[in-house]
Amino acid sequence: MGKGGSASVGGSPKGTKGFNKSWVLFLMVFMAIFLNADNLVLSPNITAIELEFGITDADIGNISALFTVIGAIISLAWGYLADKGSRKILLLLSVLIGELPCLLTAFAANYTQFFILRILCGIGLGASFPIVFSLVADFFSEKERGKATALISGAIGFGSVLGMIIGGYGGAAWGWRVPFILVSAPNFLFALLFWLSVKEPPRALSEENLREMIEQGFVYPRSIQLSDYKRLFTIPTNLLLFLQGMAGTVPWGAIPLFLVAYLQRVKGFDLTSATTVFMFFGLGNIVGIVSGGLVGGVLYRKAPSRVPLFSGITTIVGAGMAVVVFTAPLVSYWTIVALGFLTAMMASLTGPNVKTMLMNVNVPENRGAIFSIFNLTDSLGTGFGRFVGGWMVQLLTIGPALAISSLFWLPCGVLLIMLVNRFPRDVERLRGVMRKLGEEMAAKAKVA
């Protein structure tokens, strides 16, 4: 139906009655887990890969940076397409684009092949990001999005941890190549199940002021225009979240990539022990993401302003804890495990709440676009962290390099606190836009 029109109400409704949201969320969670496992599967095996291909820590930093940044740039086009066409098809393509190169990485014969395959894998990972969160916004209402986003974000974090675990234990047992097969293979099954069992949701399906009409079969009358991109940067919440993302992801670029190497070189752990420590660090990340999203959902229902306040304070505390981890003369294995778990948990509470805030201040036809831009800003921070982390490790040694990276969480926390007054106003602005559009759709339906 063209812009400004409505669909006939005949036939089956296009609303939530035709969708099993739990099943859709289940599939997206597991696809996110294994797609994001590709991200850090190489990390525990950095030393083995460097020895085989004759490369350095800086080379690994360069690969990892480009893996992230190029994927994010490509996701800009994917985000635009997600707001125009079938997100179901686009999500399946992004999964296949990511997993086929990951599988083939196990057979890379030289550094050039390894480099190219890693970049292609990053493109698939980056392309999936805006599609997944655009779908979440349409399947789940404003009050449900915190929980759904927490689960998807937790799956992303768990995927990275799973990649580290498979890379570490699998690398120790079978060499560095086999883990790339193990993390990529399951998604071919989940992609097939998604294709066979999931229907494309109508846009704006879960908007409070439009849900009833969409469920009756009316079509959301607006779609993204290129001119919308300029307007996205005029929304204060968007701008502040872009900036905090660029700062806050620098530590998430450097620390996961070099943590196992830090534990081996500075603390003297073997690969298996270092991977176990990282596993607890990753579990802290997952617990923080899920609990942060759930707490954020409760706070949002009480007052939207509490979400950025909670996120900002916990991010600043996480920065201080991370500096202690990488500078204090800790020698006890279990002390390092416990502090790493708590630090990762504290620093992770913000992630899902940022995504929920973006969903709740942007119109439905722009959500693919906004998440592609957010993914780009986040990826620039992550890529910068990996690139600079690799060079700082060579120049300053690994401990000081990771401590300096952790300090980027401080400006991230300050920017989040600046949203305490602005975010609620942007939420109300969006509600007003949706209310007015619903009235216009109802008026056109009466005329028709």
String of helices and strands: HHHHHHHHHHHHHHHHHHH
Could you name the ranges where pLDDT drops below 50 across 5 or more consecutive residues? 1-16
* Structural class determined from secondary elements: mainly alpha
Summed over residues and divided by their number, the pLDDT gives a mean of 86
Largest sheet descriptor:
none
Helix content: over 70%
Output the number of helix runs: 19
Overview of the molecule:
There is one protein chain. Helices cover 78% and strands 0% of the residues. Helix 11 runs antiparallel to helix 12 (271-302). 54% of the residues are buried. The protein is an all-alpha fold and 448 residues long. It has helices at 21-40, 46-53, 57-82, 87-105, 111-139, 145-174, 178-184, 186-197, 211-216, 228-232, 236-265, 271-302, 306-327, 333-348, 351-359, 367-396, 398-406, 409-417, 419-447.
What distinguishing features does this structure have?
single chain; 448 residues; mainly alpha
Helices, strands, pairings?
Elements: H1 21-40, H2 46-53, H3 57-82, H4 87-105, H5 111-139, H6 145-174, H7 178-184, H8 186-197, H9 211-216, H10 228-232, H11 236-265, H12 271-302, H13 306-327, H14 333-348, H15 351-359, H16 367-396, H17 398-406, H18 409-417, H19 419-447
Helix pairs in contact: 1-5, 1-6, 1-8, 3-5, 3-16, 4-5, 4-7, 4-8, 5-6, 5-16, 6-7, 6-12, 6-15, 11-12, 11-16, 11-17, 11-18, 12-13, 12-14, 12-15, 13-14, 13-17, 13-18, 16-17
